[in-house]
């Protein structure tokens, strides 16, 4: 296992602020094997604003849920009905940015951990942003709706000419992760290949949050409940809901790598996209924009 990079003199880092971007009620027995029958969990769909301390780039990781869910592809509505999802979006990511005086047109990069509906938000207002996604998302969107009437992804989701598809096949290792990409080339922000366990093109982010060795790992949908990180629960395969991941074994392997990161580097904070525990501790507090999350 390679080490996380040491800080350099005058080291750039990332200031991270959470953004309110909606909530979704999920069947908990779909997420963890220790849930009771019929148990539900209302979880956040977290979005994050990342600001580079040197070049001042504005980078948003995930957009949460869009307010007009009725405009999602028909296949998504079938999925929502089957799973019993219930969404609520009092504020979307754009509303949250406005609380600190930012507009979607100010954002330079929008990075999707993956292209499921509760992460893609409403991309239309981000007219000046380059969209960053894993290479695996290309086929999902190309074969999307309306070309495929049952698809869970819209063909126009990713703006033509403003999308970077990142291919992790030749990325070097970092820490416990086999493939990572130094996004700015200065050791401040790494895109981590999360493998295809959850869905094709799934990526995570590892951000340096202080000039002297603090880090934040944004894990996307590597797991849907914090008990998967602590080892208190495992990924289930439910007789009705199925599995939360396309490949349960690959997803479990990636979770093990995240646990190894947590155990090896005490100054790394890990947050899941639907991290109910983190949200309950921090909602409305200084970790939310226009505040800044403290670094470990």
TrEMBL record:
Q: Which SMART domains match?
A: Lactamase_B (SM00849)
Work out whether the entry's keyword set contains Metal-binding: yes
Can you name one GO molecular function term for this protein? hydrolase activity
Q: Which residues cross the membrane?
A: none
Question: What residue stretches are annotated with the Metallo-beta-lactamase domain?
Answer: 44-274
Sorted alphabetically, the keyword list is: Hydrolase, Metal-binding, Zinc
Superkingdom of source: Eukaryota
The parts of the chain that form a coiled coil are none
Q: InterPro entries from the entry?
A: MBL_superfamily_lactonases (IPR051013), Metallo-B-lactamas (IPR001279), RibonucZ/Hydroxyglut_hydro (IPR036866)
Cofactor(s) listed: Zn(2+)
Assigned protein family:
Belongs to the metallo-beta-lactamase superfamily.
Instruction: Cite the PANTHER family for this sequence.
Output: 102 KBASES UNSTABLE REGION: FROM 1 TO 119443 (PTHR42978:SF2), QUORUM-QUENCHING LACTONASE YTNP-RELATED-RELATED (PTHR42978)
Protein name, per record: Metallo-beta-lactamase domain-containing protein
Native organism is Pycnoporus cinnabarinus (Cinnabar-red polypore)
Q: What taxonomic lineage is listed for the species of origin?
A: Eukaryota, Fungi, Dikarya, Basidiomycota, Agaricomycotina
């Amino acid at each position: 296992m390679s080490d996380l990079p040491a800080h350099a003199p005058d080291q750039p880092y990332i200031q991270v602020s959470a953004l309110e971007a909606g909530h979704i009620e999920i069947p908990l027995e779909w997420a963890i094997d220790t849930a009771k029958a019929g148990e539900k969990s209302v979880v956040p769909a977290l979005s994050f604003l990342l600001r580079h301390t040197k070049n001042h780039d504005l980078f948003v990781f995930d957009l949460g849920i869009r307010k007009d869910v009725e405009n999602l592809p028909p296949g998504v509505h079938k999925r929502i009905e089957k799973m019993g999802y219930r969404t609520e979006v009092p504020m979307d990511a754009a509303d949250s940015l406005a609380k600190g005086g930012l507009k979607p047109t100010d954002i330079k990069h929008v990075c999707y951990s993956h292209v499921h509906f509760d992460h893609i938000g409403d991309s239309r207002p981000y007219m000046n942003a380059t969209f960053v996604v894993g290479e695996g998302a290309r086929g999902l969107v190309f074969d999307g709706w309306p070309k495929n009437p049952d698809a869970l992804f819209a063909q126009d989701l990713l703006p033509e000419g403003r999308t970077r598809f990142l291919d992790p096949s030749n990325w070097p290792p970092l820490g416990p992760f086999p493939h990572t990409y130094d996004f700015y080339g200065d050791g401040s922000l790494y895109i981590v290949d999360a493998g295809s366990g959850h869905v094709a093109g799934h990526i995570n982010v590892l951000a340096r949050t202080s000039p002297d060795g603090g880090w934040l790992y944004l894990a996307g949908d590597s797991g849907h409940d914090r008990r998967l990180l602590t080892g208190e629960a495992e990924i289930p395969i439910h007789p009705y809901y199925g599995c939360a991941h396309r490949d349960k074994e690959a997803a479990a392997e990636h979770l093990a790598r995240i646990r190894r990161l947590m155990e090896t580097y005490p100054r790394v904070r890990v947050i899941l996209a639907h991290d109910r525990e983190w949200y309950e501790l921090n909602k409305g507090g200084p970790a939310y924009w226009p505040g800044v999350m403290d670094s470990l």
